[in-house]
Amino acid sequence: MSISFQKVTKSFDDTVALKNFSFEFKKGQTSVLIGSSGCGKSTLLRLVVGLIKHDSGTILIDNQAPVKSNLPFLRKKIGYVIQEGGLFPHLTTKENVSLMAGYTGWDEKKTNDRMNELIRLTKFREDLLDRYPSELSGGQRQRVSLMRALMLEPEFLLLDEPLGSLDPLIRYDLQEDLKDIFERLGKTVILVTHDLHEAVFFADEIILMREGTIVQKGDINEFLKSPSDPFVTKFINAQRSEINFSNEN
Amino acid sequence: MKINFKFFGILIFVFFFLDIVSFPQEETLIKVGSKKFTENVILGEIITQLITSQDQKVDYIKELGGTRILWNALLNGEIDIYPDYTGTIIKEILVNKNANKNNLKDKLAELNIGMIGPLCFNNTYAIGMKKELAEKLGIEEISNLKNHPSLTLGFTNEFMDRTDGWRGLQRTYQLPQTNVTGLDHDLAYKGLASGSIDVIDLYSTDAEIEYYNLKVLKDDLHYFPDYKSVILYRKELEKTHPGIIKRLQILENSIPEETMIKMNSEVKINKKPESFVAANFLKNKFSIQSSYQASTFLSRLWHNTKEHLFLVLISLTAAILISIPLGTIAFKYKKMGKIILGVTGIIQTIPSLALLVFMIPLLGIGTYPAISALFLYSLLPIVRNTHSGLGDIPNNIRESAIVLGLSPSFILKKIELPLASRSILAGIKTSAVINVGTATLGALIGAGGYGQPILTGIRLDDITLILEGAVPAALLALLVQWIFDLSEKLIIPKGL
Asked: Smallest Cβ distance to A75: which of B403, B419, B493?
C-alpha cells in the first residue's frame, strides 16, 4: 500500500522537472513535499494520478505501474485535492461530492450515509449542501473538495497546495481540521506545499526538493541540526525570517 | 441536461406541425412555375387559375428565377408547367440543337417537353431609352448608339449573359460602350428615371414603356428574334392529366399584344394583384369564373411565416445537431479541428446568394436546397463557439474530472458540455439570427418565406410589399433573440 518512485525522470521541453527521483511514500504516513516553485513537487503528484507520463524510471502504486488500462481503477484509490479545489462550478456541493458515488453505482442510502460521515469528518455546514461552489467561501470550497476526494474511501490522499489560496485565519482552522482528519483516517498522504511551517505541522516526513531532486528528507530537527546542503539552511532561514519580520510588526 | 431534451421535444413537435400544414399530399399536385418578371407571373397565374377551375390542386411557385432555373426545374420534374418565349427557347435553351420556329415542337418533344401556343403576343427584347434624351441625341434605331460611346448601359443580368443578349447585340451592332452594368429589370427602370442609366433592355410588352415615356429603338439589323409566348409542360401530363392540357390549349392565340400590355400595366402601374388581373382576363375572355380570392394581409403573413419558420427551424436544428459534435471533435483532435474550422469558415465566406444558387444544380429548387444552404451557413458560429467554449474550461476543472476516474464520454457529457453551454448557446443564437435574415433569400430559389413579398415588392416597386417581408423578418430575428435569452436561464446550469 505504498507509492514508490524508482529513478523517475520527467522533462518538459528543455527543463527537467524530475531527475532520477527515487523515494517510497510509506503506508499510513503523511509525507510533505516542499521546495520553491518549479522544483518538481507538483509534477510528482501529477505523475502519480496519471495526468502526465514520465520519461524513464518506474512508478508503482500499490505495486502496480499506472498504464492506460488500469488508470481508471487506480484513480479510484487516490483522492486528489488541488489549490482552489477544482470543483465543478455547475454542480452543487452535494452533487460535487456524490458524483463519483453515482458514477460507481452506489445506491442512495450508501451515498447519503457516506456523505453524512464526510460532513462530520470535515466539519462542513450541512445547510450549505445545496450551494454552488461560487456561493461558498474559499475554506468551505476546500472542505467540499476534500469530501469529494474522500467519497470512495481512497487509500491515498494527494493534496497540492490545498491551503495555498486561503486567508490566514481560515487557513489556520482548516490546518487543524486537516491534521485531525489525516490522523483519524490513517491514510497514505502526500501533501505539496512551499510553506515550511505547514510542512512541519503536517509531516511525518519532510522531503525538501530542488530542481527535480531530493535535497534532504526526514525530520525538521535533522534539517536544522545537520543540513545536507547549504540550500537547506538557506530555505529554512528564508521562511524563518519572514515570520520574525511579521512578529516584529 | 434533461431540459435540453424537453427543448428538442418541443422543436420536433413544431416541425411536425409545420410539416403537416405546409405539405398537403403531393401526388395530385400540379406545380406551376414562373420567372421573376411581372408578365410571366401573370401568365403563371392565368395557367394556375385555369387548372384550378377544373378542381385540380395547383402549387404555384411564382417568381422562381431566370430561364435556366425554370427550364432545369421543368426537366427535373420540380415543376410541371411554366410560360416561356419562343425566342428564348431557340436562342438560349436549345441553342446547340438547331431549333427554329418550325421544328421547335419536335425538338422539345425529344426532351419530353410539350408546348402550347403561341398565345399570340410577341414580347421581344428591345432596347429603350428616355424619349427626351433620344431626341436630343437624334437616336432612332439601335445602330445610332454607335455614335455615342459615353452612354451608360444597364441590362438585366440575364440579358448580360444570354447568347441572344448583350454580347450578340454588341457584336451585331459594333457597339463601343464600355460602361455596362448588370442589374434587376425593375431597378433598371428606376435607374433610367433617375438618370443614372441611359439605355436599358426591356420587353416590348412592358407597361413601363408608356409610363416612363420611353423610346423603343428600332432593331434595324433584326437582331432580336420573335419572342412569342408559349406554355411549356412535361409531356407526361398528356397521359396523367389530359384534361388540363386541353384546358390550357384554349389560351392559344387568345392574348393579343395590347391585352398583355394592359395586364402588365394593371399590375405594375395600378398595383393590382396578378391573381386579380388573371381572374379578370379569364372572366372577360372565356367567362370562366375562377376561384380567385384576394389574399388578405393576415393570410399572406401566416403563409409566409409558416414557410419562413420551416426553413429556419429545420436548417437550424440540423446545424445544431451536427455542429456541436463537430465543434467537440475539432476541440479534441487538433489536426482535424483545423480542417473542420477551416472548411466551415470557408463556407461562411461564400456570399449567401451564391451559396443558394450553388445548391440548384445539386438539389434543384425549392425548400430543401434552401434549407441545405441555410444549414451550411449556420454551422460556423456553433462549431466555433463549441470549440472555444470547451477550450475555455479551466484546466484544473478538467483535470479534477480526469483524476476522479470519470470516463472521457462522461466528462464530455456531464462536465465539459454543460460548462461550455453558455458559449454554445451564444453560437446558436448568432446562427439563428443570421439564419432568419438569410432565409429571406430563399424566395429566390422558390422556397417562399418572408423573402417572397420582398421579391415581389422589388419587382413591383412596392414599398409596402417589401415591408410586408422585411418587418416580420426583423421581428422574427428579435423574437428568436428573445427566446434564446429566455432559454439561457433554462439551459445554462445554475452556478455558472
From this structure: B403
Nearest residue on chain B to A87, alpha-carbon basis: B397
- Determine whether the interchain pair B495/A99 forms a contact, defined as Cβ–Cβ distance below 8 Å: no
Alpha-carbon distance of A154 to A76, in angstroms, equals: 6
Looking at this predicted complex, what is its ipTM?
0.89
Q: Supply the CATH number for residue A169's domain.
A: 3.40.50.300
A42 contacts in chain B (CB < 8 Å): none
**Interface contact B495-A134, CB threshold 8 A:** yes
Q: How far apart are CA B118 and CA B87, in angstroms?
A: 11
Stretch among A229-238, B128-137, B465-474 having the lowest mean pLDDT: A229-238
DSSP state of B122: B
Residue located via cell numbers 546542503: A229
Lowest mean pLDDT among B33-37, B62-66, B250-254: B62-66
pLDDT score at B96: 84
Whether residue B419 and residue A75 make contact (CB cut-off 8 A), yes or no, is no
Q: Does A100 lie at the interface with B, CB-CB under 8 angstroms? A: yes
d(CA A190, CA A122): 18
In this complex, is the C-beta atom of A72 within 8 Å of any C-beta atom belonging to chain B? Answer: yes
Pairing relationship of beta strands B153-156 and B113-116 according to DSSP bridges = unpaired
Query: Beta strand A3-12 with A56-61: parallel, antiparallel or unpaired?
Result: antiparallel
Query: Which residue range is the domain that position A97 belongs to?
Result: 90-153
Cross-chain residue pair A88–B496, CB shorter than 8 Å = no
pTM score of the predicted model? 0.78
What is the set of domains in chain B, with CATH numbers?
A: 2-17+297-491 (1.10.3720.10), 34-122+227-286 (3.40.190.10), 125-217 (3.40.190.120)
